[in-house]
Amino acid sequence: MASGIVRSVLRNRAGKIFSATSFTNPDSGRGFSSFNRCLSSAASDSNLIRATLFPGDGIGPEIAESVKQVFREAEVPIEWEEHYVGQEIDPRTQSFLTWESLESVRQNGVGLKGPMATPIGKGHRSLNLTLRKELNLYANVRPCYSLPGYKTRYDDVNLITIRENTEGEYSGLEHQVVRGVVESLKIITRQASLRVAEYAFHYAKTHGRERVSAIHKANIMQKTDGLFLKCCREVAEKYPEIKYEEVVIDNCCMMLVKNPALFDVLVMPNLYGDIISDLCAGLIGGLGLTPSCNIGEGGIALAEAVHGSAPDIAGKNLANPTALLLSSVTMLRHLKLHDKANRIQDAILNTIAEGKYRTADLGGSSSTTDFTRAICDHL
Amino acid sequence: MASRLVRRFFQSPPVVSSLLRSLSSVASPSQPIRVTLFPGDGIGPEISQSVKQVFSAAEVPIEWEEHFVGDKVDPRTESFLTWESLESVRKNGAGLKGPMATPIGKGFRSLNLTLRKELGLYVNVRPCFSIPGYKTRYDSVNLVTIRENTEGEYSGLEHQVVRGVVESLKIITRQASLRVAEYAFHYAKTNGRQKVSAIHKANIMKKTDGLFLKCCREVAEKYPEINYEEVIIDNCCMMLVKNPALFDVLVMPNLYGDIISDLCAGLVGGLGLTPRYSYSTLTSHMIYFSMSFLMILILYSCNIGEKGIVVAEAVHGSAPDIAGKNLANPTALLLSAVAMLRTLELRVKADQIHDAIFKTIAEGKYRTGDLGGTSSTREFTKAVCDNL
């Protein structure tokens, strides 16, 4: 036991140093931090994993409470470190998120974020932008699968959308050429494309997925999307056991609305990723049920609920915690706590499938606490 | 008759070309309207024959001027379409285009690009509607996508900054945005539509999509009877797959238009029976393939150019695997022709043929393979003629 702790403490420190510095080879960075986590999760009770929690605004605190309750019931070895969005702008981050909050995520390597309402005004960056830039969150991963028992028009959705999150059309570089003519720059770099492609194939491999589809419009945008595809092809060669295909985005949308079972893992540049991931969320029932996880350099994972803060039902015990719960499950999978993740996911799906306890947005009349209690009972 | 003409002139926006057409359509059998017809490749000639047959059965005063895609590149147009073909469309002001297979190679422009640039086709209009009697997951789709077709993300202006960094320019101009917004509201008004939704991502692309929205708002003020709303594209996609009845007319810049119009096509169309793959093997372990699916042959679109030029086309491909076998569904090209008739102000004939087509499909007795039936092209065409 003692040697185990010493070993894991040493590896923790070494892992942090390595994962913080090995940016050039994402594989090794990820490898070390997840190796580090394997060890820390092995020595479970005595070595809790610290995770940063941002409850957020509106319904955020209630659903964060649900997550904590479920995790306690399932005896997940996680210790939450809660941080809140401040009232004043922190000059070090130019936003309402303090430097301490960001450091906490960097140090812990994992975080869970509830919905945050972006304050209107100038002189500060939006909260999501701050997180993305400061933590270098380069990939947004959204697993979309049909929830058994919650009927939508689609029953067999089981796909993952992986979206490049730093460049592309969202570089924010626009200018007026002359009056009435505006230009916007779309930037694609080899480095960012390789990074997200690496993550996509790594994800596919570690989660037992069979196929990765790159979505593009390279027939029209030959150089930019062409570069993205080139990078995807290079990475595909390193994973011969995973099938790789390229699909033009308009075909992809058509196929998704006709037969989403055709897709497995989708990897895309920023704009297409935005569109397709929201399309897929619509296929399974909306943003209130969709988990999402942002991956950053050094193996940082920040899982988040992508729905809004719903101020109209805040504090009324009506909110549906499913999105945040499923996001926390993706966080557990990132930490390689697969059996805990499966247990909690099955409990959630069974509760929804049973239909006895459902929140209002799913057509039922249960409260947040009843729904959470039902999930705990299903564990 | 004269007073009706005058009334029509004053009601619709002062577009000279539609007035000209009203006048020319009055003098019907003695002075038929000339329309350029590109039968196209693959199933093109068969379905063009269907159109001609139905039109002559309905006694539509149209004289077809057929043009074919050449075998050699015409240096004046840098494509396989000859200068004469393009001049013909410019002169006649209306064209009907069957599916054209784009030849692979270099040294010439693609056929669609040639048509678009030479004829100044600035907007693409694609009505998407649930087909009565043909069940998909969505039953109540009835919307029209109007897509700006000249600029935006498809300006083709890309360059390498340094090794490994590439830039692409997205251009939005006031002129093009106003033009397409004007068309969208005009279309909504003349076709009895109640709402126009502008699709954008102006929260992120503030200047470019912001300019597009500004232009749409300016035009919206001139049409107070039509509801106007702005929807962000990712919300739009989500709403479309959850409840497409929420939308009526959608107006969008180029890229979003491409995506949304194909998404809507997927909502109402089937993927058909035959997926077609084209692949190349790089190693024994990897197969890269891009899929193009044969849609049901129902959807059509209209390209509008300056001075009121209309080129209507079927949205499907040339389907070489069923070419010449009398199996193709001519509905898409027939509906394109009907849309063209409407812009030519031959509304009575247009409605007549439109009703005949939908009656035939809804009856279910004569349906081609893509809709799940066993009729041949000729049988279906005959049924439509009978239903006139």
TrEMBL record, chain A:
Alphabetized GO MF terms: isocitrate dehydrogenase (NAD+) activity; magnesium ion binding; NAD binding
Domain Isopropylmalate dehydrogenase-like: 50-375
Keywords: Magnesium, Metal-binding, NAD, Oxidoreductase, Transit peptide
Gene3D superfamilies named among the record's database cross-references: Isopropylmalate Dehydrogenase (3.40.718.10)
Single GO BP term: tricarboxylic acid cycle
GO terms for cellular component: mitochondrion
Protein name in the entry: Isopropylmalate dehydrogenase-like domain-containing protein
Native source organism of the sequence: Nyssa sinensis
The organism's taxonomic lineage, starting at the top: Eukaryota, Viridiplantae, Streptophyta, Embryophyta, Tracheophyta
Automatic annotation (TrEMBL), chain B:
A GO MF label: NAD binding
Keywords, sorted A to Z: Oxidoreductase
Matches recorded under PROSITE patterns: IDH_IMDH
Entry GO CC: mitochondrion
GO process annotations (BP): isocitrate metabolic process; tricarboxylic acid cycle
Pfam family, one: Iso_dh
InterPro entries the UniProt entry points to: IsoCit/isopropylmalate_DH_CS (IPR019818), IsoPropMal-DH-like_dom (IPR024084)
Family, as annotated: Belongs to the isocitrate and isopropylmalate dehydrogenases family.
Stated name of the protein: Isopropylmalate dehydrogenase-like domain-containing protein
